[in-house]
Amino acid sequence: MRVPTFVTACATLFGAAALADPKPSEALSSQQILPDNFKPPQVFQNTNLVRHTNLEKGYLRETVNVVIENIDSKSQDQYYFPFGAGVVDKVGGLEVTDKKNPGRPFKTELVEYDPYRQVVGPNGPLNSPPSPTQFFRITLPQPLPPKSQLTLSITYHIRSTLTPLPLKINQQDKQYLLHTFSIYTPSAYPTLKQKTKIKFPTTDIPDVTGGSPDRLGSTFTYGPYNDPVPAGALEPASVRYEFTRPLIHATLLERDIEVSQWGGNLACEERYWLTNQGAQLSGHFDRVQWAATQYYSPPTSALRALNVPLRAGALNPYFTDDIGNVSTSRFRSGGGGKEANLELKPRYPVFGGWKYSFRIGWDADLRHFLRRRLQTPEGGGGHVLKVPFLEGPRMGEGVSYAKVEVRVILPEGARNVRFETEVPLVGVEETLHRTFMDTVGRTTVKLTAMNVVDEARDKPLIVTYDYPFSAAFRKPITIFLGVMAVFITAWGIGRLDVSIAKQQA
User: pTM here?
Assistant: First the structure.
């Protein structure tokens, strides 16, 4: 069964969101291959550019506000935004809007040079070196006429680029991170005027190389630079700042959302493979020293606990790891419409380079997430399910995810499945999931996203499906037939004569 695009009728129920591509083959082919001699056409210039860099979390967040001007003689609708080849696979959440008229984000897609290009050397063909620059192609909703201007707001985050320096520290030492960047914002077009602002978590910034920024508290400002800068110009710089908190990163998150219409229950389970990307310990772990710090809780680069807010009405939570049930957790059910809260404490503090895998789960009242819509011709009716794409921990230092897999397990017999989410997807798959007393299996939609951060917690996932009237009785009929089969089998066995009779002469 193919997962079609989401119908516009559901947008009136829950609001507009970015349309997800339903075809797996199309969703996975998000990169467009360019020839090796490609250079973005010089049809734009950046009249004014301001870059805001935020380092208050364990991953990099940037917003680039740029006024672009069409300097070509024809209308143009494609703008290229560059990234270094070493970080482009860590970029996520790229969103482009018109800053003066915010609305639906512009279409963006990753493009790259031909990876199969070969260079002919003196001894034959050689593999070409990797391109140092990759591009995102931004398609404007309307072609920009010549000499016209448009203000773009480009936001994105980059995971796993902040490195601890030094790489190893003592158990109670401060942790410092190194951020390397270019004072000039990388651009495929010439820039007439620009500046960069960097926001740090503290004022403890011992090392600054490159440039002479203006300091105001925990904010650095480079520029403004009023001299024109050519396309591709870079000016290396770096800053080392204090960040005595864990760098929480999940290499994989598997999230299951199971809908049970007979029981009126929504069961959620999340499986995490966490690691701390902070500075490693220079010596052995001192448990006595760690126990002493529990009384005054000083800043530490180790992960002590995780705070997981849940929607109002959540109940029956559990917290397990590879060993079994973890009792060091606390659940607050909220009440009065307030969100619940699940506090998790791992079996051991997770220092830099350490790993911890676990799973959590909970139940919720399905009425808070499922709505009925128009009745279908086959009887029964259509349903609209609205759930968060991502829940998980909410931490001040932030959480990044390399890969997120979300499975929505619908009731058996659900069909005509559609979905919509604002989170960019790289894979969509529809399969069958078989559980106890199922016949053909439950329809399951699996969505895969890369380079996600905890800011995606507020983004919804909307799934619509048709549930025929006959499908609602599939489970009771299966149970009835199963019980009848047991009774008939028992009756048949009871009718057998297994006694030993005397042989007649």
Answer: 0.82
